[in-house]
Amino acid sequence: MRIRLRSGMPVVAIFTLVLVLLATAGPAAAQGKPIRIGEINSYSGLATVYTFPYREGLLMAAKEINDAGGVMGRPIEFIFRDDKLKPDEAVKAARELVGQEKVDFLAGCISSGVGLAISAYAKEAKTLYFATHCQTSRLTWDDGHKYVAHTTNNVNQYVRALAKKASTLPYKKWAHISPDYEYGHNVWDEFIAYLKLQKPDVQVMQENWPKLGETDHSSYVTALLQSNAEAFISSVWGAQEIAFVKQARPFGLFDKVKFISASVGNPDELDPLGKEAPIGAITPGFAWYDDGMQKRHPKLAEWVKKYQDRTKKEPTLGASWGYASAYIIVEAIKRAKSAETDKVIAALGEGYEMEFPWGKVIMRGCDMQAIPPQWVGTVKMNAQNKPVLGDIEETHGKDVIKSCDEVAKLRAAAAEKKK
Amino acid sequence: MSWITNGPLITVQVMSGLSVGMLLFLVSVGMSLIFGVTRIVNLAHGCFYMVGAYLMVTLVEVLPDRAWTFWLALLLAPIGVALLGGVIEMGLLRLIYHRDPLMQLILTFGLILVIGTLVLLAWGPDNKSVSRPDALAGSVKIFGQPFPSYYVLVLALAPLVAVALWLVFYRTRWGMLVRAATVDREMLGALGVNVAALYTQVFMFGSWLAGFGGALAAPTVAVALGMDGDVLTTAFVVVVIGGLGSFAGSFIGALLVGLLQSFGILVFPAISIVLLFALMAVVLIVRPWGLLGRPEP
User: Which H or E run includes A241?
Assistant: First the structure.
């Protein structure tokens, strides 16, 4: 110890020198005053399974952007806050970020309720908010305004893509199981409306509305088995859907009634289910490992490798969303040639398209809503006996999403309701 | 409502309601026991259930993949939870027995946050799952209706635990001391019983029960952060219905709640969530001390 202490001085000097060299190295590294983005999300508790990979994607993009010189010579910097999945905590954090931290923009949300709350605050504070991970269509539609942009998929697009696929299946008698809150109702309403539009003779046999977070589903399984439905859609998600699948399997539900799920194709559900995964289920998902996906998107494999090197984990849909969100935000600033709120909003209002390793994302001007590619596949076992998504059918959100006119009507109807 | 005349379906429904009730019983009887002796309402009790399930995941992963792996894990996981309970009792709770009940609530509430964060750090954010042992992965036919074999195990094990508990409490000296402690702790101390050690043992035993509940429930649910909160609420309702501190009350309360959930969904799907709390409200109005509890003197 003593020896180290004595030789401490030169070590410190060398260390400082190295640090200075490192800091000044890299000809392109961004040097201006950072553009600061307050990022509010659930970084504790049960949503971390989604938000941790999302944050990795976001930080990976931020590092790439800053290493390449930032935006207009300024680096971007994310300041993270935990919303504990609560709208009031999120708004508190937003106030602090805007008031004390003086951030240029707000971003974040995994829970739709949180996203809507931050959006309402952003409107009042006249601060631009990028909703990056929650999916409710209300964000930019019914409750849309000029201070909120949505950088990821919304329920409308992927549920319609799923319903379109469902309409090609030979089933007329349908049932559903959806958690009894905003998201569950949103998915079921969109799904059945679009399915009936494609296939007018569809009948609804039976409905199930478990509470969000229900742990025992055996009664719903019984009800589905008794419903005479040929197929059913589930918008139960995450830990709850894992429990549902594990409980439904021994009853033979998936052999008797075709299973369509809004989320079971995501690795946070498929991986833990393992050999108990519902083979044959039809579901959306980000199957980066799929041969067809990698062929259609030649840059995907490289991106995946970069993510794996960085995190030692496999990417998720959320990771791709975090990554895309950072670039979409930066692109808006680039196009505005300024980080001033009004100019960035004007740039977003013009709309733009971006290429990502998984395809084209359109930022639509009229509602500042992202329109990404859509994938629907079938759950299969791969050669290593691990459940994966196969037979991926790729379409694009632009083929299914509600038009700008429809959005205008939704906004007008919502404004009417408020009066 | 066609199911009303469908006998086999009703039988299966009763059985799955009872198996859910049995899992609840394991958690709530531990909570009730701890309250009965230490007078602490342990809000962190759900965490013991969660840790039991997580330990089960790890043990099934690290133990060699054999036919007995699942059973060994089922034996070891609750013991791990009991040790955790022992550490918490000796390190923290022991310091606050004489304090205001509100202080005790704040401490056990804080434990929820601490244990939740430690579980996140130790096991990471990903959802986990334990597969049922192969022999119990399928279903058996009950009057022609499929019924998950694993629930048969739960239905068989939980009454065994209930009988074992009864034997421990009513046929052993330790059980007698525990029962005495629920009636008059001061007198027990005055008679020369080492009350501090008794508290630790009771707390560890209560934790063991919750851990066993979690380990046994693990194959039927997702092992995920937040599973502690769900079970805590329901276990709390069970304990209030059955009577805080009453073991038989927990048993009856758990079965009632299990059946109510199972049939409530079929009969009144829209308000099945409310039914649980409505039952609790009715019990609180008619017998504020719970079905089998004793009124406070």
Answer: helix A238-248
